[in-house]
Amino acid sequence: MGEESSILKLPATSQTNLKRREFLKKSGLAVLGTALSAGLLAACGDNTATAPAASSTTAAGGAATTAAGGAATTAAAATGAPIKVGVLITFTGPYTAIGNDVLDGVNLYFSSIGNQFNGRPITVIKEDEGASPDNALQRAKKLVEQDKVDFIIGIALTNDYLAMRDYLDQNKTILIIANAGANAVVTDKFSKYIFRASFGNGQYTYPLGLYAYEHLGKSSVVLAPDYAAGHEATGGFSAGFKKAGGNVIKEIYSALGQTTDYAPFLTQVQDAKPEMTYAFYSGTDTINWIKQYDQFGLKKIPLAGSFAIDDNSLAQMGSAAENVVYASTWAITLDTDANKKFVADYKAKTNKQTVGATVCFGYDAAQMVGATLKAVNGDTSDKVKLAAAMENIGQIDSPRGPIKINPENHGLAQNIYIWQIAKGSDGKLTSKLAKTYNAVPEIGDLLKNGIPAQ
Question: pTM of the predicted model, to two decimals?
Answer without folding.
Answer: 0.83
